[in-house]
Sequence to fold (509 residues):
Amino acid sequence: MADEKKEGICYLVGAGPGDPGLMTLRGKECIELADVVVYDYLSNPDFLQWARPDAELIYAGKKSKNHAIPQGGINQLLVDRAKEGKIVTRLKGGDPLVFGRGGEEAGELVEAGIKFEFIPGISSTIAGPAYAGIPVTHRDHCSQLTIFTGHEDPTKAESSIDYKQIANAPGTKVMLMGVERLPIIMKSLIEAGAAADTPIALVRWATTGQQRTITGTLETIADIAIEQHFKAPAVAVIGGVVNCRETLNWFEDRPLRGKRVVVTRTRKQSSKLSRMLRELGADVLEMPTIRIVPSDEKEHREFAQMVINAHTYEWLIFTSPNAVEYFFDTFYKIREDAREIGGCRIAAVGPGTKAKLAEYRMGVDLLPEIHVAEELAAKFESDVSVENTTMLWVRAKDARDVLSTRLIEAGAILDEGIAYQTVPETDDPTGAVKRFESEGADIITFTSASTVECFLDLGLEMPEGIQIASIGPITSKAILEEELELAIEAKTHDIPGLVAAVLELAARE
Ligand code: SAH
Fold:
C-alpha cells in the first residue's frame, strides 16, 4: 500500500463575488482539503487563510490583459499538479462557469484524464445587482434576463455579440467586463434599437466594503462614468428594475461604508470583530500581528500540574478567553469527568472571558465593572476575604503582574499557571501586509498591547491619515509609548466597545 499512487483531483470552485459570507460551504471544504490552491484577482484573498499551512498557494491572474500566468499556463499547471496526485483547488471569482473559463479548464482536465468537480459560486451577475438594491427579475418589470459580455470590441467585424438581438430582447440585461468600452457599447445598443432613456446601473467591487454604484441611462452613463473616474471591475445592469434601487438600496448606506479598517488580532480571534465591522459596511483588512501558542515545555508542564490540582484551589482566575481555552484543553486531556474541577469559584476579567467560560458551561462568581486587571484586583480586595485563600491564576507568559502583586500583598496563596504566550505573526498567506503597504487604510484597531508591539515589529510605516482605535487603557498606553497618535479609546473594553469607537471615529468626519 505504501507506494500506491494517490489519484489527483481538481476542484473548479466559484469563490463568489467578494463578500466572504457568499462562499459556499463546499467551496470552503475544497480549500481546506487542497494541496495546491490557485487563485485569481477577483477571488477574495481572505479565503486563503482556510488553506492548510503547508498548501502551495499560486496566484494565477491579474486584471484583464495583465495575467500573471497566461491561460494556457494555468491549464497546464492544474493538469501537472493533479497528475502528481495532488488535490488542486482552483478558485474563480463569482461562478466558475459564468464567463469564468471553467468549461475550458475542465475540458483540458478531462483530456488529460484527471478527475474534476464543478463547485458553483454566487455570480457577480446576480449578487452585484442584489447588493445595489436591484432585483434582476421582478414581476412588475420583466420576466426575462439576458447576461452578456462587453469584452469584445463591437466594431470588430468578427464580433460574436449581436447588439441588435440584445437591444431587442425584453427584460433585464446584465453585462460583465464592459467598463472600458462603455461609450461604444452604449452607442451600439442605442443604434441597434434600445431606448436611450433605459435606466442602467454600474456596480463596482460589488458585495465588498469597496462597493460603489453609479446610475444613469444608456445615453448618459458613459459620460457619468468618465466624470466620476469609475473603473473596472463592475457589473452593469440595464432595465426598469434599476429604479427599484430607490427604495431597496440596503447595502450602501451603512455607516462604515468605504472605510478600510485593519484588524490586528490573531487570525483565530478576528472573526467576531471583522464580522461586526463588515456588517456596518467596512472594508475589513485582516492583518494579524500576533499568534497565540502554548507556553514553553517547562512552563507548560508546571501549568498542567496545576490544572490536575484544580480542585484544590478555592478560586480559579481567568484574565482572557485564551486562558479559558488553554485551561480546559489541558483539563480535558487529563480528566474525563467535569466534576473533577471541584468546588472552586471562578473570577473573570471581562465579558469576553465570561462568554468563553459559558461555552464550557462555567458560571462566573466575580467580574469587575471595568475590565482591567487593576479592577479585578480591587474587586477581590473589596468582595472576597483574600487572606490565606488558595488561588490559581491562568495567565499568559507576558501578562502584567499587577494582579499577582496585589493578591499576594492581600495575603492570597497564589499559583500562576503560564498557559500560553503571544508571539509575532510572521505568516501572511492572504497578502494583507502587502495590501496595507500599497493601498493603506483609514482606521487601524488594536486589541492588546501585544498587537501594538508586534505591529511595530513588522517595521511597517503607518499610512498617512490613518486613525488608531484602541480597545482600552493598557493598549492605549502601549500606543502612546510607541509615540503613535491615538484617535480614540473604546469606552467599554471589549469588541462591541471597540466597534462603537470605530463608528464614532467614522462619524467625526
Ligand atoms: N465568473 C465571474 C465573472 C468573471 S468575468 C462571475 O460569475 O461573477 C470578470 C468580470 O466579472 C469583471 O470584469 C466584472 O465585470 C465582473 N465581476 C466579478 N466580480 C465582481 C465584483 N465583485 N464586482 C463587480 N464586478 C465583478
